[in-house]
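Researcher: Re-running this chain for the archive, since the previous output was lost when a drive failed. Same request as before.
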Amino acid sequence: MRCFYHPDYTFPLPAEHPFPMDKFWRAEALIRAGSSPLPPPSACHPLDDKRFSPALSIHPVDPAPFDLVLRVHTNDYLEQIRTGSLDPRAALKLGLPACEALLTRSRLEVAGTLAATYAALTDGLACNLAGGTHHAFPDHGQGYCVLNDVAIAIRDLHVTRPELRVFVLDTDAHQGNGTHAIFAADQRVFTYSIHVGKNYPAVKTSGSLDVELPRYVGGADYLEQLEATLAPAFFDFAPDLVFWIAGADPHEHDRFGQMKLTDADFAARDEHILRLVTRTRTPTAILYGGGYNRDREHTARIHAATVLRAATFFRA
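Model: Regenerated C-alpha cells:
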C-alpha cells in the first residue's frame, strides 16, 4: 500500500498552539517503524512487522501546482494567504499564521492527497499521511484548514473522468462543512459525515447524509450509528471512489472532539470501514483529518494505527 508524505507537512507553530503539527512526523515515524502500540483490530489482522511491512511504502511529494488548486480556491484567497493579508476575522477563523510558507505546506498536503487518489484507483487502497482539511471553503479557511485537498482532488479527477461517482466518508468528529458546501449541487459526489451535532462548526452546511450524534457519545452508540447508516448510503450511491477522512478526534481524551471512543472503538471503526471498501473493491484514499488529544503523542498513534490497519487489509 502506497503512502505519501513530506517532512514539511510539519509547519512551525508556537508550543502553546492547539494544533498538534508534530503529529505528522510522529505518525510517519511510527508507520515507518512498522509497529503501533495500539491494540490490533482482530486476531485475523495483527499489527506486526511480518504481516504488513511488505505491503506498505512511503513516497515523497512536491507541492501541488497552482492551476489545480485554482479549480477550487479563488486567486484572491490564495494571495491573501501567501502575503499574510487576511483580515483579523478571517485570520481568527483560520487559526494558522498566513504566509507563503503556510501556503506551500498546504500545497504539499494537497499533493499527497492527489497522489493517494491516483494510487488508490490503481491499487485499491492508498494513504496521504496528512489531509482531510474539510473546513476549507473556496474563498476562506476555517478550523486549521487552508486548502480543501479532497475537493481539489475530486475536481482534478472530474476533468478527465467526469462520470466518476465519489463518496466522501468523513468520520472526523466535526462536520466537513467546507466539502459539503463545495459539492452541494454536484450529484456525482456523496458527502457522508458522522459527527457531534452541537460542536464546531457552529453553523453546519448540509451534506448528502449528516449523522448527528449527541455530545460525549460512547463507542457502542457511535458504532451502532455508523453500522446502521453507512452501508445503506454507500450501496445506494454505488461509488467508484471513496475518500475516507478518518479523524483521530473522536477519542475519549481529545480536547475538541466531544466523543468518548476508546482505542478499541477506533479499531472497530476502522475495521468496519475497511471491510466495506475492500469487500466491494472500491478504491479508497485514506486521509488523517483532525486530532487534538490531551496526550499529543496519542494523536499520532491513532493516525498511525489507522494506516497500519489499512495495510493489513491491502495485503489480505
